[in-house]
Amino acid sequence: MTEHTMLITGGAGFIGSHLAKALLDEGHKVAILDNFSNGKTENIQQLLKNPSLTLVKEDLKKPKELLPNVRASDIIFHLAANPEVKIGETEPETHFEENILATFNVLEAVRKSEKPKIIVFASTSTVYGESEQVPTREEYGPLIPISTYGASKLACEALITSYAYTFNHRALILRLANVIGPRSNHGVIVDFIKKISANPKELEILGDGKQQKSYMHVSDCIDAFMHLTWAFSKGDERVEIFNLGSDDKVTVAQIAEIVSEEMKTPDIKYKFTGGVEGGRGWKGDVKIMQLSIDKLLRTGWKPRHSSEQAVRLAARALVRENKDR
Fold first, then answer.
1. Which of 40, 230, 243, 279 could form an S-S bond across to 208 if both were Cys, CB 3.0 to 4.6 Å?
2. Contact present, 176 and 244 (Cβ < 8 Å)
C-alpha cells in the first residue's frame, strides 16, 4: 500500500492513540495534534521514539500549527472532541467549542490548504436520537438528536459534507457505537470500576439497568477505520457514511455483572437509581441503541467481538490499568 502522511486530531486520546499505532505499524508518517484535555502523553509514550511520528500540542479552538500540518497531510482523521455525553446538561458550551468550533477550524485549514484532502470523521450513534428503527441504518431519518453531544456531532457532519462539496474535498463519516477497550477514560465501564474501587459492597447504577446498547472493542474499531479508509481512498465518492459497531447489544445490568466478576466482588449489591424519563441514566441518554452494520459487512469486513465479549475484554484491561496506577 502507498505510504501516506496522516494527521490525527485528538491522536493522544483513547481511539486516536490506537489509530496512531496502527498507522505507524503500516509504515505511514503520522502527525498527532492534541490539546491534552482528554488525551494523555502516556497513551502514546511508546510511539514517541518512532521517527515517523510528529507530536504537536495544539488547541483546535485557537489553532496555531494546524494549517501547516493539514497542508503536509494526505488524509486527516478528525477525532478531537469532548466525548462525555452527560456534561451536555450542565456545560453545553463545551460541546459547541470542543466539537463544532474545533471542526470548523479544521475545515478552514483544509480549505486554505488549497489541495484536495480526505477527511475521516469520528461521528457517533447519538446523531440518530431515539431511533424508531433498531438496528438503525445509515439512511434512517429524520435525525433528531436528544443530547447536545449528538447535536454537536450532527452539526459537524453537516459542516464536513458541505465543505467536501463546496471546496472539492472528500469525506468519510463513521458513526460509532460505544467504543471500549484499553486506555478508555470515560463511559459506563470506567464509572463502574471507579465506584467499585471506592465501595466494593455496593454499586450505584444510573437508570433502571435495562438500557441496551451496542459496544465495539477498540481493536475492531481501528480495523474498520483502516479497512474503510483505504477502500474510500481508492474510490471517487464525494461523501460516504458508515455505521461502526457490533451486531448485538447488552444491558447496563449485564455490564455491571461483568465488571463485578472481573473485579472479584461476587457479593456486591446493585443500587439502581431509577434514572429519568423512563429509566434513562441521565437526560440525553439514548436508552436503546444498536446500529445496523449491514453496509459495513457488505464491504467484506466484520467485527471479531460481540458486545458482551468487547465488554469483558475492556473491563479486564481497565481493571488491570486501575491496579497499575
1. 279
2. yes
